[in-house]
Amino acid sequence: MAGFASNDQIIAALSAGQIWQQEWNKNFNPTTLAVANEWHTLFRGAGNPGADALFNTGTTLVFQAVEDTTANAGSIQHGGNVQASGFQKHLLSGSAVSAAATVVPGTLALVDVVGFYRKTPVTSTAADATTNTLGRSATFTAATSDIITYTGVGSLPSNLLTGTRVRVSTTTTLPAPLATATDYYLIRIDNDTCELATSYANAIAGTQIDITTTGTGTHTMVWLLPRYTNGAGVQAIYFANNATPLGSATPNLSLGYTNSAQATGRATPTVLPVGKSAAANSHIIYTGATGTGKYNFNMPLQGGDAGIAEINTIQNSNSYISGEYSVAMLRTLAKFPLSTLGLAAERNFLFEMPSLPRIYDGAALYWLWGSGVATPVSSGFSGSLNFIYG
Q1: What is the model's pLDDT at position 109?
Q2: What one-character DSSP code corresponds to residue 275?
Q3: Spatial distance between the Cα atoms of 205 and 366, rounded to a whole number of angstroms
Q4: pLDDT digits over 286-334, tens only?
Q5: I need a labelling partner for 153 at 20 to 30 A (CA). Which of 36, 54, 104, 267 fits?
Q6: Residues 216, 222, 140, 231: is their CA dihedral positive or negative?
Q7: By C-alpha distance, which of 301, 318, 199, 294 is closest to 256?
Q8: Handedness of CA 150, 153, 155, 160 (dihedral sign)
Q9: From CA 317, how far away is CA 286, in angstroms rounded?
Q10: Are 131 and 157 in contact, with CB atoms under 8 Å apart?
Q11: Which of 327, 329, 332 is nearest to 368 (CA)?
Q12: What is the DSSP letter of 211?
């Protein structure tokens, strides 16, 4: 089984060279300083990796998946894909430091961005509907034992998880009783195989569809998210995505979404987050000074929800007049509190929580910065991340 069940297995992986160390350095928001309690993305800061040129591109309100190989993504590299070789990759340890004056205290959060929706223009005050094309795909064969085997791996079907909503199509005849334009829910078996269920509840219960024929032609399965494919643990952030600040307004911000249990019609609870007037490049726009409508970096979810499978509507209640923002879907992997100027924060994830965070093939890793004090323009951060696979 992939992954690690003992210290001996970790030692064996280290001895076999199944590790990757990635040095990194990033600069803070290049246009304006941050005030205390604000969170910013470091996506567009200069450094290694370079600034992204992605999050203010593409068609408005259309989901765009993000991977480590996505053009202009500017994400932190982690040694490439390993799952096809039967391995799992994990974050073993890391460090982060800043020598920039007046930056600390503050917190760096390492996140995996699975995709985003660009919102431009920002003058609409309606709950604008998004487009969620199931753009991930894998060809497959099906057996009368009910087992589906992936034959195309370009979209990394090894990342598929139980409960993921999928659809199927074919060039000729689908395996019976499967049908096109019908939602099915995946039951994961391993990196290469799965079964299908007629509902999310059946998928969780392991009650698979009885496949009675193998069909003819080439069959294709499609789904939305490139990682955490059922949405479990996936959160969302609104952030200003380019050098032009948002306009002078303080709108309420809300999402309509499908949760990780595949329940539709979920919504941001009240009290709604409130966007900052004239929010600058990279600012997560509802973070900042304490008060009504100010939150940590993740958007609040409806009670009982454990993640977002897809976002269905995006709303700012008042016109932002100018600029634009993006809503990113992401999962937080680790946090590095920086308390002392010039002193590295070090994390050992073998012995600390979260324990050995999983790094999926295609992961697009980025930093967020939470300012404990005012953070000057172009403040520098650096460090290293150590990955292990086995």
Answers
A1: 98
A2: P
A3: 35
A4: 999 878 899 999 999 999 999 999 999 999 999 999 999 999 999 999 9
A5: 54
A6: negative
A7: 301
A8: positive
A9: 13
A10: no
A11: 332
A12: -
The tokens describing 96, both together, are 């982060």
Peptide bond into 30 cis (omega under 30): no
Task: Say what the pLDDT of residue 324 is.
Answer: 97
**For the purposes of burial, counting CB atoms within 10 Å of the CB of 37, is it exposed (0-12), middle (13-18) or buried (19 or more)?**
middle
More confident residue, 2 or 138: 138
* Model confidence at 218: pLDDT above 80: yes
Residues of the chain with pLDDT > 90, as a percent, come to 94
| Predicted confidence band of residue 350 (pLDDT cuts 50, 70, 90) | very high
Q: 372 burial class (0-12, 13-18, 19+ CB within 10 angstroms)?
A: middle
Distance CA 63, CA 311 (A): 9
Residue 358, Cα to own-chain centre: how many angstroms? 13
The pLDDT, as a whole number, for residue 291 is 81
CA angle 68, 71, 77 (to 5 degrees): 25
Indicate the residue type of 36.
Answer: A
Write down the pLDDT at residue 353.
85
- Cα separation values, 351 from 10, 90, 201, 344, Å: 13, 13, 35, 18
Q: Where are the alpha helices (DSSP H) in the chain?
A: 7-15, 200-205
Contact in structure between 139 and 347 (CB atoms under 8 Å): no
* pLDDT score recorded for residue 102: 80
**C-alpha–C-alpha distance, residues 364 and 71, integer Å:** 11
Residue 164: the pLDDT is: 98
- Whether the full predicted model's pTM is greater than 0.90, yes or no, is yes
Sequence-distant (6+) residues with CB within 8 A of 19 are: 13, 92, 386, 387, 388, 389
